[in-house]
Amino acid sequence: MVPTVPLFPGIPGGIEVFIVLLVFVVPLALLALAAVAGIGFFRSRSSNDEEVERLERRVEELERERDDDGTRDADRSGWNDGQS
Fold this sequence. Notes:
The chain has helices at about 15-70, 75. Helix content is about 70%, strand content about 0%.
């Protein structure tokens, strides 16, 4: 006869402990993983917002420089090139 080895030797109610861990710990671990992923996602979006704000300030600065040149928008766009 082949000797058998119990799955949880020496632990009373071992399989029940395993099932409780499976039912409660695994979902909590998945929830924690989702929370960490969500925090990372929103942090990356906030850095994108900062980049957009920086670019908007740069565009405003360039538009002010363009307006200080004394040229009109129509002259620069090529729509008013002196032809009637």
